[in-house]
Amino acid sequence: MSQTEQALLYRRDGAIASIVFNRPQALNAIDEAIAQRFRAACEAIVSDERIRVVVLHGAGRAFVAGGDLRMLAEDPTRVAERLIDPMHRGLALLRAHDAPLVAGVHGSAAGAGLSLVLASDLAIAARGTRFNMAYLRVGASCDLGASWTLPRVVGTRKAMELALLNPVIDADEALRLGLLNEVVDPEALEAHVQSLAQRLAQMPQPALGRMTRLLRESHARDFAGQLAAEREAFHACASSSGFAAHARALLDARPARA
Length: 258
Fold this sequence. Notes:
12 helices; 2 domains; alpha/beta; 2-enoyl-CoA Hydratase, Chain A, domain 1; 258 residues; globular
């Protein structure tokens, strides 16, 4: 495996795909190798019909500590082409795909790392993890959709505070703000995220994907449009081969009425 391939690891275990940011010596700061591998991994995921859940991890002491500062300093004008474009392409593919995106976060999630957490559908963090927008610290505006996701998660006023003043917040505060779904002990993080991914993977299809997509896309529609989308999604689920079996199984499990 080449150094470029090692910078980001992609694997599939049954219906679960895992993307592991793997530059632990640099706290998984995103460089060109990671960006290119991330795009390739996302392209592989959306072309594989077996995948029902995608999990993001970071190797070593952190989740992702932002973009690679050396590259930002040495070649700033090409960052959009070499880093942002492939990362955006990959993330757009994941967000358009039916598989829920789960982030397992530890150590630090700063800049692009926090943006990836925000882009995920579910996020679990180890107690002690620290979060920071960090972009203005390097004189940059944000990327990876943070300007879209952050105000939707925490509200516009709080988003302004987090983005403009760059406070460092801990996992408990991130949970309170809605950035996270759960906080667990560090030694339990990997098993907890894996258990959650397995639980999601066992949910009925195509219902899991349709529900995920409905919630993701709800901000783009008015109420009437969302009702129409719900009807279409329900019809697709009801037309699937397993729908009647799931309904019968639930009916059979109910106690008889007196």
